[in-house]
Amino acid sequence: MEPAERAQAARDRVPRIDPYGFERPEDFDYAAYEEFFSTYLVILTRRAIKWSKLLKGSSSVQKSMTDMNRTFPDNIKFRKSADPCLQKTLYNVLLAYGHHNQGVGYCQGMNFIAGYLILITKNEEESFWLLDALVGRILPDYYSPAMLGLKMDQEVLGELVRTKLPAVAALMDGHGVLWTLVVSRWFICLFVDILPVETVLRIWDCLFNEGSKIIFRVALTLIKQHQAFILEASSVADICEKFKEITKGSFVMECHTFMQKIFSEPGSLSMTTITRLRESCRAKLLAQG
Amino acid sequence: MAKQYDVLFRLLLIGDSGVGKTCLLCRFTDNEFHSSHISTIGVDFKMKTIEVDGIKVRIQIWDTAGQERYQTITKQYYRRAQGIFLVYDISSERSYQHIMKWVSDVDEYAPEGVQKILIGNKADEEQKRQVGREQGQQLAKEYGMDFYETSACTNLNIKESFTRLTELVLQAHRKELDGVRTRASNEMALAELEEDESKPEGPANSSKTCWC
Q1: Which of A102, A145, A200, B98 is most deeply packed, by most CB within 10 A?
Q2: Residue A78: what pLDDT?
Q3: Which residue, among A72, A101, A108, would best test binding to B if mutated, counting the most B CBs under 10 Å from its CB?
Q4: Domain boundaries of chain B, sorted by first residue
């Protein structure tokens, strides 16, 4: 087909008014636009096909069923009596993810993440792809059977605290408290059910845009802000209690100020530092076996 | 400052995901029951002081995530436990079968002499029962454990099982406790020794010596 004919054909297929309501200019390149859009359509179609296949596959993820009614029992949209009941949506997303990423399958905690994605996107398929972005790309291997990435990042936080807030590190060492005791849920649930919903969503915006480093910023800010309070602890039980307390109150409720603080309070936190610490912590954990 | 208790023990709840470990704990410490509880992630704990045999015992009860992969985190807590509840759900044959696996984990990670007790929870779910009471008794006998069928929902055998495990731990620590009794008048307590012990023995930065 001649270029002129092709242009005319594209002109016939593409609407004069775009999806946002703007009239297309006289010299609008319909052919180029159509080409751009068709490549994107290919991706969308590929995803849609993948998604429908995933939903059909047989399951090794049945175990996660016990968590469906244990995900946000206090959310009316997740109740069995709700219509539509998001438990079913959640099940579909987690089931599909289990097929898609068989190395990870289902890990408790993913139900909370997927649950939030569903509440926000109100769309099964979109939630699935966002979950995949988090678990498969943005976060280190938090949810794989060995949970090595989770253990690594907890150690990294410990190292950052040792450098930036040595008094807190000394307190933890003095009582022999491993970081895993106080911060596992921060990492695994990405602050869901720990911080207020709006604050979690603001953090997630940064998480999707800037990567997993943001989790350290949030953790360090919480600890630094309440350093004096944490240092009052005189037992293991006290320390655990204080780490629960610091995730409550107006400091975390005022999400806009909180988000500004996470970029100023912890001070410099370069990706080079994080990468280096992650490497050394991972190596140490692997050596311990 | 005077201690509100004579001795501090650490108990651990383990068993498959969804058998009701957190519900048992909430019923015991707060006398609360919620039919749908949020799944436990990682490890959590609650405390309660009970009196056994004239001794005020402060118990720290560690609640763990049941999913197998969380073992990589929870096994670190086995080491300093003095008593362990092995929990299955009477309406889940699978959770009962897995007790074997949990016992072998205890053998591997918990200290020698740790006291164990077998719990068949959700005893109120009679119509869904898959594991007979005698099966529970049989298994407990095999491993030399005490056995209770409990229901956090109806508050069946909750206090009894927690008290029993605490008694067993007390008996196992009889020697140290005789010291506590004689010194009880001057407020000296094993609890203090215990707390000192919980500090790392090695250099401060070695996480290997940590107990949790």
Answers
A1: A200
A2: 92
A3: A108
A4: 7-185
**Residue A21 forms part of a structural domain:** no
Full residue range of the structural domain in which residue A121 is found: 61-138
Q: Judge: B42–A240 Cβ closer than 8 Å, yes or no.
A: no
Per-residue pLDDT, B193:
45
B73 inside 8 A of chain A by CB: yes
Domain stops at, among A103, A120, A138: A138
Contact yes or no for B75/A113 (Cβ under 8 A): no
User: Of how many residues is chain A composed?
Assistant: 289
A145 touching chain B per CB within 8 A: yes
For residues A163 and A280, membership in a common domain is answered with yes
Do A83 and A167 fall into the same domain?
A: no
pLDDT at A261: 98
By Cβ distance, the residue of B18, B41, B207 closest to A66 is: B18
Task: Answer whether A173 sits within 8 Å of B205, measured CB to CB.
Answer: yes
User: Do the Cβ atoms of B204 and A151 come within 8 Å?
Assistant: no
Tens digits of residue pLDDT in A218-231? 999 999 999 999 99
Same domain, A95 and A169: no
Kindly report the CATH number assigned to the domain that includes residue A204: 1.10.472.80
Burial label for B82, CB within 10 Å (0-12, 13-18, 19+), is buried
Kindly list the residues from chain B whose CB atom is less than 8 angstroms away from the CB atom of residue A288: 208
A116 part of a folded domain: yes
* pLDDT at residue B174, as a whole number: 82
Domain assignment present for A126: yes
- Give the ipTM: 0.83
Domain B7-185 has CATH 3.20.20.70: no
Helix, strand, coil shares of chain A, percent, nearest 5, are: 70, 0, 30
Q: What's residue A4's pLDDT? A: 84
- Residue (of B34, B29, B32, B58) closest to B44 by Cα position: B29
Yes or no: say if A209 and A218 are a contact pair by the CB < 8 Å rule.
Answer: no
**Chosen domain end from A105, A138, A171:** A138
CB atoms B41 and A236 under 8 Å? no
Q: What is the mean pLDDT of each run of 10 residues along chain B (212 residues)?
A: 81 96 97 88 93 92 93 90 98 97 96 96 97 98 97 97 97 78 50 45 38 40
Report the gap between the CA of A163 and the closest CA in chain B (Å).
Answer: 13
Q: Would the pTM of this model clear 0.90, i.e. be above it?
A: no
Q: Is A67 in Cβ contact with B199 (below 8 Å)?
A: no
Tell me whether residues B73 and A72 touch, CB distance under 8 A: no
Question: Is cis: bond before A84, omega within 30 of 0?
Answer: yes
Query: Do residues A204 and A257 both lie within one domain?
Result: yes
Residues A178 and A76 in one domain: no
CA distance A97 to chain B (A): 17
- CA separation, residue A171 to residues A187, A243, B17, B138, B205 (Å): 21, 13, 33, 46, 11
Domain shared by A158 and A279, yes or no: yes
Is residue A39 in some structural domain? no
Chain A residue closest to B63 (CA)? A181
- Per the CB < 8 A criterion, the answer to whether A110 and A130 are in contact is no
Same domain, A154 and A248: yes
> Chain B residue with minimal CA distance to A183?
B42
Q: Do B47 and A237 touch (CB under 8 A)?
A: yes
Q: Splitting chain A (289 residues) into consecutive groups of 10 residues, what average pLDDT does each group show? A: 83 90 93 91 92 74 69 90 90 92 93 97 96 96 95 97 98 93 95 97 97 98 98 94 96 97 96 97 93
